[in-house]
């Protein structure tokens, strides 16, 4: 009996230790102009000094100082902080829906990422910065903090360190859009998502071992841009999906994008895909062509030689080769959104399956960060659910959807442009687990039926080179209804 009690005590202690090790530490820092910070916090307001890659010390955010927000200075911080930065801090540190969603999101990495959140009052503009992401405000040409995030493995142990950068000007822009402050909270959720997708020890975030190659020859990325790989597009699209579920009105902009039959994708001449004739020379419209000196201010190249030209092209969705459609972040976002809305009668059930796939993709392995991997993972989980008691109840009500839907949505978003062998190869290369779902064996017998069913809603003409209207929701609804046929439900026994 004594040994049993001892074992219980040891087990309890180990559980506490494991939970402590896995708990993520979040710290909040507030930056504001030096005069304001010294007036309110005197010498407790610190200059942000850093060391660059060559070992030289420099001041980050010149003219600004910061504090670590904690219990003994919160009241002073609350009395002088920029309104949206204060509200952001308060919402992240109280019993709000935002806090609950962030807590859930941070379980993607199994609790091994410690995070610094840097809140900035940038209303007077920034002079320069190396660490923070920046944008340029068209109203006064001032630099401001562009919301962004990153993470990296700590030098010792198995934990990671993440940073989230948020500023007042960006919050003011977001608050002015549908959803108001909830829209800004969606942005915050998006950035926290980035801290959870752990860098691959060999490749970091994408197959190029370099984010810049994915984003192209410009310093940032646009939501309509065709990137150099699917991995970064998936990372961005997943973050946007999590933000969208928090602020549903955002979906209207996504649907509008998906229904745009005219040119909607951008590709610059210094991006990787410009070197692939199949993509670069697809039917397009030229948005800009000329000297780099004449570029609009929203295009900032990584390198600006004294001479040279730059071209920016626009492409219709149906003209983009299927191989590269998912290199766009909005198409990745669309995949998860459409699965969330239509794969189950209950959105919570769909969210759970998407979240489980995200958890697998968040592991430090960039080879898993493809939509085909997500499709395989979700299809497997749909098959397991179909064989469960709740799944059988859904089937009895006629609301259960076949796991083939996970493949159908990917096929739809790539306008059925892959050959059967190309699609099969993509799914085999991005296998989730030791075996493919049953859907992999069954989908091909239904593919042509689905294509015939949905193409009238995707521009017509057999989903290729159509000129008719696009109605993505009608297409997905038709596909969902077809795949609710009891004969097409696939079950994977537990």
Instruction: Let me know the average pLDDT.
Output: 91
What does the main sheet amount to? 5 strands, mixed
Strand order within the widest beta sheet = 4-1-5-9-8
Distance linking N and C termini: 37 Å
How many distinct helices? 21
Helix fraction by DSSP (H/I, runs of at least 4)? 40-55%
Q: What structural class do the secondary elements suggest?
A: alpha+beta
The low-pLDDT segments are 1-21
**Which percent range describes the beta-strand content?**
5-15%
Quantity of strands, as a count: 12
Shape: globular
Query: What integer value in Å does the Rg equal?
Result: 24 Å
Task: Write structural notes for this entry.
This protein has helices spanning 2-22, 34-41, 74-80, 83-92, 97-105, 168-175, 181-196, 211-215, 230-246, 250-258, 277-280, 322-325, 329-342, 347-361, 371-386, 389-397, 405-413, 420-429, 439-442, 444-454, 472-482, and strands at residues 26-33, 49-51, 57-59, 64-68, 113-120, 134-136, 143-145, 148-153, 160-167, 265-268, 285-291, 309-315. By secondary structure, it is an alpha+beta fold. It has a 5-stranded mixed sheet with strand order 4-1-5-9-8. The chain contains 21 helices and 12 strands. α13 (329-342) packs across α14. The model is unreliable at 1-21 (pLDDT under 50). A hairpin with a 6-residue loop joins β8 and β9.
